[in-house]
Design brief:
The chain is of the alpha/beta class. It has a single domain, classed as 3-Layer(aba) Sandwich (Rossmann fold). The strands form two sheets. A six-stranded mixed sheet has the order 6-7-8-3-9-10, sandwiched between helices. A four-stranded antiparallel sheet has the order 2-1-4-5. The chain is globular. It binds adenosine-5'-diphosphate. The site of adenosine-5'-diphosphate has 12 residues, from α1. It is a peripheral membrane protein. It is found in: Cell membrane. Belongs to the ABC transporter superfamily.
């Protein structure tokens, strides 16, 4: 579903991703871990086409995302949803409208269809009773759930999650992990998550990729990475965060 071939990204002469190769199979849930500044968020930003690689190719669902023409990029980009650390909801729109706006305007769904699906998704994230509320009336955790429903409303093949628990109060983190685990189990969406939450990496993902200085240091199922890491650098990182 996702393939990076020799992707290099530099910012101001500094190499942030260094000839990076990796792939994620359809329906898999991958967690990117590693020290701050190792390039994890840059990978999500490349997939969202918020930044462009300096070298290499990126494909999603077998279609070229980079290098590609503007029209192709738009088409491929449509299959990718992202939930940010900050929820970025539209404050002047009610919750249901936040979830239906893009399906109506981008996918061309009728408002009725979009609302039906929107209500289902808001039920899924436990917010069926809040469809008519404005986001400002909801807690941070509830707003994050709306952001997840909004991303899923676009029926993405790929869902990118950037530190979705880090802006939440500690008591809300477990509930969010439960929700993401449910989504991972109940949909066939391919998930790529950047997180400092090792519980998330352990419980939700099929594969954990440890990054260091813009490279994949090692990867494997969570049981292996957490209980028998091969690299000294991974051991140090895990002992600092666990
Ligand atoms: P991580 O998510 O692993 O913490 P990032 O991908 O956010 O790492 O960042 C990797 C490196 O790239 C960091 O040193 C960061 O400062 C730098 N970087 C990220 N985005 C930009 C940008 N837009 N301009 C300049 N430097 C950037």
């Amino acid at each position: 579903m996702i393939r990076f071939d020799k992707v290099t990204k530099r910012f101001g002469g500094r190499t942030v991703l260094d000839s990076l190769d990796f792939s994620v199979h359809t329906g898999k849930h991958v967690t990117l871990i590693g020290p701050s500044g190792s390039g994890k968020t840059t990978i999500l930003r490349l997939l969202m086409t918020l930044v462009k690689p300096d070298e290499g190719t990126i494909t999603v669902g077998g279609e070229r995302l980079w290098p590609a023409g503007e029209k192709e990029v738009r088409e491929v980009r449509r299959n990718i949803g992202m939930v940010f650390q900050q929820f970025n909801l539209f404050p002047h729109m009610k919750v249901l409208r936040n979830v239906t706006e893009a399906p109506v305007h981008v996918l061309g769904l009728s408002r009725d269809e979009a609302e039906e699906r929107g209500r289902e998704l808001l039920d899924l994230v436990g917010l069926g009773a809040y469809t008519d509320s404005f986001p400002g009336r909801l807690s941070g955790g509830q707003q994050q759930r709306v952001a997840i429903a909004r991303a899923l409303a676009m029926r993405p093949k790929v869902l990118l999650l950037d530190e979705v628990t880090s802006a939440l109060d500690p008591e809300l983190v477990a509930g969010m992990l439960d929700l993401l685990r449910d989504i991972a189990r109940s949909t066939d969406v391919t998930m790529v998550c950047v997180t400092h939450e090792m519980g998330f990496a352990k419980d939700v993902s099929d594969c954990v990729m440890m990054f260091d200085e813009g490279r994949v240091l090692e990867y494997g199922p969570p049981e292996k990475i957490f209980s028998a890491p091969e690299h000294e650098r991974t051991k140090e990182f895990l002992s600092a965060v666990l």
